[in-house]
Amino acid sequence: xxxxxxxxxxxxxxxxxxxxxxxxxxxxxxxxxxxxxxxxxxxxxxxxxxxxxxxxxxxxxxxxxxxxxxxxxxxxxxxxxxxxxxxxxxxxxxxxxxxxxxxxxxxxxxxxxxxxxxxxxxxxxxxxxxxxxxxxxxxxxxxxxxxxxxxxxxxxxxxxxxxxxxxxxxxxxxxxxxxxxxxxxxxxxxxxxxxxxxxxxxxxxxxxxxxxxxxxxxxxxxxxxxxxxxxxxxxxxxxxxxxxxxxxxxxxxxxx
Length: 256
What we know:
alpha/beta, Aminopeptidase, seven-stranded mixed β-sheet, two-stranded antiparallel sheet
């Protein structure tokens, strides 16, 4: 029986698809972690991937949720986080994107997403993407003054066999103000690059475009190499680095 026949992907006990952490945070910053969870609903039977692949970088941004939560605490900022694996639906992709429900991620095949019927695709969009999108929309509407939107991601040190030397990436769409200001505030000893290891041409700035550009909000997408935030010490280190960078960059923006 397909998910369309069941008319549900997430059971009542498994939902909701998104959560808001520190909803009363006082900072004029909204943090977002679209790939915070590796959770696959029971109805999808692990999508046919192996146990070791279930918690690989294909399923979620390793260390991303921990880093986002540390930043939420340090900045006292609300955090909108997905509670469902990006293998089910990638909340940083629009429904029109072919990789919103990937049949393959790097070298990992996802049998449960291959040859997906339209009804099943619509169910994923309705039960995962739309609730996440609405949660973020509502959270942004709740700010007294326009906030800064910051999305938190991590990336694998090796991609298709190619080693990545960049440690911290600052990505932007059409608005590069905050990304460039943060780049200027990057510390020595951390390989920090603009639009690396991805850029707008890779289709990774959907959240920025959908929720920040349309509102005229300052925004940035942060990518940290996941081997650097795979333990509490690494998370604490980058939370401090990014808090300092964001604080400095936003202060400079206000001064101009």
